[in-house]
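Sorry, explain these tokens?

___
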Amino acid sequence: MESSSSPLLSSEVELLLLLLIACLGAVTLKKFKIPYTVGLVVIGLGLGFLSPLVFAADPLGSLTLSPDIILFIFIPPLIFESSIALDNQLLFKTLTPALMLAGLGLLVSAAIVGGLVAWLTPLSFSGALVFGALISATDPVAVIALFKELGVPKRLTMLVEGESMLNDATAIVLFDLVMSAIASGKVGVLTVGEASVDFLVVMLGGILVGVVIAAIIFGYSITQAKHNALIQTTVTIVIAYAAFIFAQRYLKVSGVIAVMSAGLVVGWYLTHRLKPEVRIYLQEFWDYGAFIANSLIFLLVGLTTSSFITRLGTESSTFWFSIGWAIIVVLIARAVAVFGLTPLSNLLQRSEPINWRYQLVTFWGGLRGAVALALALSLDRDFPNRDLIIAMTLGVALFTILIGGTTTGKLISWLKIDEPPMLERLGKAQATILAKREALKLLQKLESMRLFNNEIITEIERDYQQVLDEAETTVSKIWEELKLDPGMARKILWLQVLRIEHQAHIELYDRGLLLENAMHKLELMVDAKRDSVLDGQIPPRMPALWSLETPLEKLIFKQLKHFFGNRKFFGKRHGQLAAVRYEYDAVTAYVSQKIVKQVKQLVAAHAVEEAVARDCISFYQQASKGAFRRVEAMGTSREELASALQKQVATHAARISEGEVIEQLVADGVIPEKALDRIQDLIERENRYL
């Protein structure tokens, strides 16, 4: 058999070629500061138009998107990666506006688009409703990547990402319901009622499937191979695809919701049951998986669009007018949904309203992409005006990706809800100072060993010292510039201090001196303070610890307590909350003192103006004093609880230290590697009885 004629070999070559293009594109686009996913669409368009002209046998001619490729290959890893990285409590704190936009907002958007498109284009009312259902789902992958790069508030990122994941499922369900109604020829009150019931079944069924699959499979794998990162990673791949396929194909419930639910369950396991190194390995793997999926899908969007445009050729100008109207109508519908429904969600969640700046970014960042294309391409070939629907979908997707994706960053900067650019300059200079100082210390040690020529060491030291001097000069110049803008200076100082606080928490957690529940609360607090600083509130608002519980948690606990308030469970619950409070206060007292000391050192070194640092020092001094008072009060009033928690933390820290020593002995060859898992399991069993 001729190997060159093998379809499998041809597909392999095409896939490798796309991956190579994606890697080269990533490097090039970063230099020109073009959003990665946006740039890949442009590259895909260019390849699609130029490849047939350059090559006699087009090497990319067979590469186009299909609904099965999008839904069953690309969607599961993209949704799963986002879900395991989501903070459950932050998600629930933005759940009201996200559900409002993904549920009622998508229905409003689909109705507006359907009505106006039926009026302005050749599509029939039923065809326009189909287009409205499939085009209303947002796909802000490019925007989320930009958010992370610019350092926008976590609440805004969570709102946009949460809405996207939820309305992917909503759009697919709505699309199926509209198609079923068209096929039956019955649309009325009864149909709407049946559709509502079906919608609830599909969504709740997706949640149940995802939770059950993740809890059973991942729960079992942890008990059998807790320390094996390769096995845990493989299991998560099985969970992501199994949840989607089992829900979507066999049970006819929402595969997207199933994957999202499974990802949230796995994310909980990552935080509470796995060691930091295994957790980091898993997260890095899924970051890589999302990178591959995004790279391929956006390149294929460009290739599919160019192929479709070439096939249309000199199609009637009606097509192009219809695409233009579709873009305008989708923007109008999005504006109505965001600016009309977000104030309503603010009334339902008064404590944390979504301000007008967040609403504007949410509106403009509502890109369309993979799900809309998958649904459009899934239409039967004999569906009326199928080509026109696909053309309009591609037109809207390209407009939102190329225009919205490239201008959202400028909008965020104009609204001043990103980290100041000077913060990055300052961070780079300060990192250089710390790195060069450590390098100089090492060179001095090498020099003392007498194993190196002194002239060589002196020459290297001179080069490092020169770079160090330049970095220190840069830091001084930046703070001199900031003297002209005290408000910006305070903002940058606070953002730096919050980074120090975050890093201090991680160090305590990795050393075993901070348990998971308290760590979670502390990080939520840091996120809340950072969002407050980015919003211009300095000193930041300090939410009470109890307010970090989600509205759903509070409601469930309140109702259970009302009916079963005398049960033993609630006594245990109060004890757990008190333990978290005690540990939270102890860490706050320690870290706040550390921050005060570091800020004072910056002032003494003239790296920060005393007037700029004064409110920061005062803030953390008060936080430390208050935390110490609460710790002392807890130790007096609940001495038994405080002692038990101290023993738990000390035991946990000792176990981590013991494990690190064992791993180092394995690395040094003292203990055989095959014995590592057995020793770790033995240590865990011993510590259960301490």
Observations:
- Residues 644-688 form one domain.
- Residues 189-225 form the longest helix (37 residues).
- The chain has 25 helices and no strands.
